[in-house]
Write a structure and sequence with these properties.
Structural class: mainly alpha
Strand content: 5-15%
Distance between the termini: 71 Å
Number of helices: 15
Order of helices and strands: HHHHHHEEHHHEEEEHHHHHH
Largest sheet: 2 strands, antiparallel
Number of strands: 6
Radius of gyration: 26 Å
Helix content: 55-70%
Length: about 350
């Protein structure tokens, strides 16, 4: 061990210096996310590269019908582009929304900008100071964000009960603290390991388009692989490789297609994965019947909010609205398109 130390210490210093110069590799979380992205890109290239390298008939077909391969490569590029756009997008963090509300409120009340400071665990609240005002006054007076959050809950709810125990911000309904991102996410759905980010209010639509393009790409690639096997007999090792890749591709297609169907249902009913799976653990949803979707505004309005970027915060429905949504559907309701 003593013999290796003189050689290992310069190597360790050189490695640490190299990681410092590259911020994307110095953080272990970002490094693992970058490696996951690289592995996904390589996996896509392997499936399409095998056909180019070993299938001469596939190359001849590409030369004969260039539009066919051109459309496939266009879909391939669009899928990878959508992947990186989704992974680099913000899911909608509470801190960012709170900053926007404070800046808007300060702009109308005072030309001076407001600053957000993190409070201690003892106070369990966020202190928003307007320049020229005292911190003690800010603690006594409810902040604009606190007033907005309270309006989303039933009367009598305390801000102290709504404060996140990790980042100390008031959480509106449908918000959850993500331990991987270490932030509170609006309309938290889940943390996607493959993307390296959370899926929330602002990138759920981008995520749906990505899995839709990925499903289409998998189906198209699967058709080309089946066509490759149906051609003239080839060496056994080529058939073994293609069968192995075909099995992996079929499993991936089943997973991605089920994910697409599941998230399509969530968007149509204005739900999230967290709300559907952990419904009984969310305090304000425990007494709501299972078949009632408390935040649904109808299929058309739900699609409009997701696709057109309507990022308004959802308030908890009143008892009258819950009673109206829990009514069973009748023939008249179907004719009136009550679900829409």
């Amino acid at each position: 061990m003593g013999v290796c130390c003189p050689f290992l210490q310069p190597w360790d210093r050189a490695r640490n210096q190299f990681l410092i110069n590259l911020p994307c590799l110095s953080d272990p979380v970002r490094r693992s996310s970058l490696l996951m992205k690289l592995a996904l890109v390589v996996l896509h290239l392997v499936f399409i590269g095998f056909l180019f390298l070993f299938d001469a008939e596939f190359i001849e077909k590409t030369k004969r019908d260039p539009w066919y391969m051109g459309c496939y490569l266009l879909l391939f590029s669009a899928t990878l582009l959508q992947y990186f756009v989704t992974s680099g997008s913000s899911p909608g963090y509470v801190v960012d929304a709170m900053r926007d509300v404070c800046e808007t409120s300060a702009m109308y009340r005072n030309p001076l900008a407001c600053s957000i400071q993190h409070a201690s665990r003892k106070s369990e609240s966020v202190v928003v100071n307007v320049e020229g005002g005292s911190a003690s006054c800010a603690r006594r007076t409810p902040t604009p964000w606190g007033k907005l959050v309270l309006d989303l809950y039933p009367p009598g709810t305390s801000i102290r009960n709504l404060t996140c125990g990790y980042c100390h911000v008031e959480q509106p309904p449908r918000t959850k603290h993500c331990h991987d991102c270490d932030r509170c996410v609006l309309q938290f759905d889940h943390h996607c390991v493959w993307l390296g980010t959370c899926i929330g209010q602002k990138n759920h639509c981008k995520f749906w388009w990505y899995i839709c393009e990925e499903t289409t790409l998998c189906i198209w690639t699967l058709i080309m692989y089946i066509d490759y096997l149906s051609n003239v007999a080839k060496p056994w090792w080529k058939n073994a490789i293609i069968i192995l890749l075909l099995v992996i591709l079929a499993i991936s297609l089943i997973f991605v297609m089920l994910l697409l169907i599941f998230h399509s249902y969530l968007i149509l009913t204005n739900q999230s994965t967290y709300e559907l799976v952990r419904r009984r653990r969310i305090p304000y949803m425990r007494n709501i019947p299972e078949r009632v979707h408390p935040f649904s505004r109808g299929i058309r309005r739900n699609l409009y909010n997701v696709c057109c970027g309507n990022y308004n915060l959802d308030s908890l429905p009143t008892a009258f609205e819950l009673e109206d949504r829990s009514r069973p559907y009748t023939c008249i309701d179907m004719l009136k398109c009550r679900c829409c």
